[in-house]
Amino acid sequence: MKLSEIAEVTQGAFTNRLETFSSDVMTSKVKPLSLKEFNQTLGLTYRISKEKDAAITVPKDKLTPQLLTDSNSLILHTQTQKIALLPEKYSGLLLTNNFIKIQLSGDVDKAFFEWYFNEHPFIQKQLAVLCEGIVVPSLKLSNVKDLEVDLPPAQQQILIGKIAQLKKRKSALMAERSELQQLYFQHKLIQSLSKTNRF
Length: 199
What we know:
- By secondary structure, this protein is an alpha+beta fold.
- The chain has a single domain (3-192), classed as Alpha-Beta Complex (Adenine-n6-DNA-methyltransferase TaqI, Chain A, domain 2), CATH 3.90.220.20.
- The protein has helices spanning 3-6, 15-18, 35-42, 110-119, 121-130, 141-145, 154-197, and strands spanning 7-11, 27-30, 56-59, 74-77, 82-85, 99-104.
- The chain has a four-stranded antiparallel beta sheet. A two-stranded antiparallel ribbon has the order 2-3.
- The radius of gyration is 21 Å and the shape is globular.
- The N and C termini lie far apart (74 Å).
- 22% of the residues are buried.
- The model has no long low-confidence stretch (mean pLDDT 85).
């Protein structure tokens, strides 16, 4: 079956077309979802240390729920071809045109689908073909909707989803442990140098 048969798939907005400076309409300030927040959700490192954190002003009538993040939908980054189930703390952020929102039907386990999309060879082969020959690989909305999916029974999805979440949590904890070890060793080295310089 195609992804469009089990999910509502929506492209994010072009912020320059959505942002307004008019005082004639009711507006809301909204912060766009950043790649840093997206990568943190997946446990990936993000190399850019400074990223603009500015909210933009948008007409309230254009700010539909499909353009905002929530903790019940999967978000696809079109250039990295990865999806993430965002935590509650990232709800209410604006999806820009680099993101696609995937709202799965109730009988598909979201944690399973995050793993399935990001790691299963069946999906990865399709993505490789769709992004072939492009200088900067990017998925189109129509291609995402047409992705073929082959889902196991619901109970198996739930089990795989739980295992995938535990694996992701373990990776995050190991990365945090490694970072803390590096800080500890750095502190000890500086401390030993300070003691040496006293004599």
